[in-house]
Design a protein that fits this description.
Blueprint (H helix, E strand, L loop, with lengths): L5 E6 L6 E10 L4 H9 L5 E12 L1 H16 L3 E5 L3 H10 L7 E2 L2 H9 L1
Parallel strand pairs: 2-3, 3-4, 4-5
Antiparallel strand pairs: 1-2
Helix pairs in contact: 1-2
């Protein structure tokens, strides 16, 4: 059995202080610690997570997204989730967090929201 992976690919900054990272793989119990370690240290004021490559999101992954959202908000920074697959949207809907987390259909829409 292959190990569970989550790859983080930094994408170009779009504007003064907007940073975008594309996630590929599973955001799950096995990958959450490394994900949080990397993302919590991101200094940009605006962070967009491109989740189009996330094939699986479990409750630990949802918890990590909420934790990252709250820690960024508490330090005056913002987070947006973009391009979630249907399974990811369903996980957020079941948990009721679809209304708490800023979710956008695409990275471009998330970036436009930050520029407003």
């Amino acid at each position: 059995m292959q190990p569970v992976r989550l790859d983080l690919e930094s994408q170009t900054r779009s504007g003064a202080d907007i940073y975008c990272t594309r996630l590929t793989g599973k955001l799950s119990l096995e990958t959450v610690p490394d994900f949080l370690c990397t993302m919590r240290s991101e200094p940009a004021s605006y962070l967009v997570l491109d989740l189009s490559g996330v094939s699986f999101l479990d409750s630990a992954g949802v918890g990590a997204l909420v934790g990252l959202f709250i820690s960024r908000r508490n330090t005056g920074k913002r987070l947006a989730l973009a391009a979630l697959a249907q399974q990811g949207i369903a996980a957020l809907q079941v948990s009721g967090l679809i209304h708490l987390l800023p979710v956008y259909a695409s990275v471009d829409l998330a970036i436009r929201q930050f520029r407003m």
